[in-house]
Design a protein that fits this description.
Strand order of the largest sheet: 1-4-3-2
Pfam families: Glyoxalase_6 (PF18029)
Oligomer: single chain
Largest sheet: 4 strands, mixed
Protein name: VOC family protein
CATH class of the largest domain: Alpha Beta
Structural class: alpha/beta
CATH topology of the largest domain: Signal recognition particle alu RNA binding heterodimer, srp9/1
Number of domains: 2
Radius of gyration: 15 Å
Strand content: 25-35%
InterPro entries: Glyas_Bleomycin-R_OHBP_Dase, Glyoxalase_6, VOC_core
Helix content: 10-25%
Number of helices: 2
CATH architecture of the largest domain: 2-Layer Sandwich
Shape: globular
Organism: Streptomyces apricus
């Protein structure tokens, strides 16, 4: 049996709004859109996709993690060619740059609903 990754899902109090952010950031196309579920995909391939599901009680994780706080259980790593330019573009789209940055060639940001994601250079 072969197992492949079909997609990654982020919980959010507003799936359409968060999908709009990632659609602009990634340049992906929308495949499905409902008030409680939106799915994006790379126009070059069907899978994996990135989906957003309604979680009205979403609590953004703490970064860096600390005992007794909401822990990050997953995040997106997005490879870029120009770290500074893509960091600025992500922030212009609504992301925020985290104060704590653990590596020189990686930038930790948060999307508009508080999910951490990383931009990184090839080889990082």
């Amino acid at each position: 049996m072969t197992v492949t990754l079909g997609g990654f899902v982020l919980g959010t109090p507003d799936p359409p709004a968060l999908a709009d952010f990632y659609r602009a950031l990634l340049g992906w196309e929308e495949v499905d859109r409902e008030p409680e579920w939106v799915r994006l995909r790379d126009p070059e391939r069907e899978r994996p996709g990135l989906s957003f599901q309604l979680e009205e009680d979403h609590i953004a994780p703490t970064w860096p993690q600390r005992p007794g706080t909401q822990q990050m259980q997953g995040h997106l790593d997005l490879q870029v060619e120009d770290l500074q330019a893509e960091t600025e573009r992500a922030c212009a789209l609504g992301a925020t740059l985290e104060e704590y940055q653990p590596q020189k060639d990686v930038r930790v940001l948060r999307d508009p609903h508080g999910h951490p994601f990383c931009l990184f250079l090839p080889g990082a």
